[in-house]
């Protein structure tokens, strides 16, 4: 029997049974229809076709009743897909209004899932987290919507700067997909690239690369262009970091071409920034500058302002290397302001540390120290040990340069963080 049909019938019979005001136990038939079987039927799980017929007879569902409820269910399903399309176009308030008017007898978990998507994109991730948790509570564990909800819940946690939770729930989505026969062709690469990004954001590059390499090897089979471009971006970052410059250059130009032919204009700024980073990594600052200027030219096309943050950081670093301190300061301050507005804690930490390094180079030690202090406190709040270690290390250097009493205490903190890292037993975060 087709699973989609079983799921639909289960939904309809559950709604009909609830309308009678009776519990499942009211319809148990000794040696024929148990309460667990009824529960499986209503949850759309696989059962014998005869059990479904027995339950329909026990409920007294007529063909006319079934047809009427089938029509209501199909109408509700059509409305959910309409609302999901509105979310994709960014009409989030309209989507929430229509969700509030939906027939909630069917697809209640799906309704909560779509509300969560709206809230996350409206920069209300905590409401998104609550909605997705509710959706998971309403679903049986085996429901195929589970990995999509887990993916969106991970995204909400990520935007709320709860990186350990984002990683944990996204790993659960991957485990779910691995445990079932359904291929999840569209969803699988989305979940994998999201987990790659989350791991990379907290400086777990080795773990991130394991997922990235799988995606890279399968990039020709990835059907969603944005996911493919994200994979290209992560791979070029990896190549540059490992000084594999020829490989990086090829990926950058391939990505620019792919973005152009698919009119993905919101990626132009990212890839021109990567090209500037590529030149800068090889000491060619004068060639890096026009590439980064190009990135700024395309910033109005960037829908997610978080993508601008590494661009402003790289502009600050390149301008600093060229002796353009005032212009570099302007770039850093713009990036930090956007990070605050977008509540991107990790990017703000990285901007603060990079800005502090420039100030330290120009002997503005007290100002640099204040930036590192803020970065350290943010890192502790977000739970990223690697970022905390970097901030504390920079503060220790300043204490050494100033020959002040903080040096010993900061050295002890550095030692404790190093021991925390060494003693971690596979944990991504150490609280």
Automatic annotation (TrEMBL):
<dbReference type="InterPro" id="IPR011990">
    <property type="entry name" value="TPR-like_helical_dom_sf"/>
</dbReference>
<dbReference type="GO" id="GO:0005737">
    <property type="term" value="C:cytoplasm"/>
</dbReference>
<feature type="domain" description="HTH cro/C1-type">
    <location>
        <begin position="33"/>
        <end position="66"/>
    </location>
</feature>
<comment type="similarity">
    <text>Belongs to the Rap family.</text>
</comment>
<keyword id="KW-0963">Cytoplasm</keyword>
<dbReference type="InterPro" id="IPR019734">
    <property type="entry name" value="TPR_rpt"/>
</dbReference>
<dbReference type="InterPro" id="IPR051476">
    <property type="entry name" value="Bac_ResReg_Asp_Phosphatase"/>
</dbReference>
<dbReference type="GO" id="GO:0003677">
    <property type="term" value="F:DNA binding"/>
</dbReference>
<keyword id="KW-0677">Repeat</keyword>
<protein>
    <recommendedName>
        <fullName>HTH cro/C1-type domain-containing protein</fullName>
    </recommendedName>
</protein>
<dbReference type="InterPro" id="IPR001387">
    <property type="entry name" value="Cro/C1-type_HTH"/>
</dbReference>
<dbReference type="InterPro" id="IPR010982">
    <property type="entry name" value="Lambda_DNA-bd_dom_sf"/>
</dbReference>
<keyword id="KW-0802">TPR repeat</keyword>
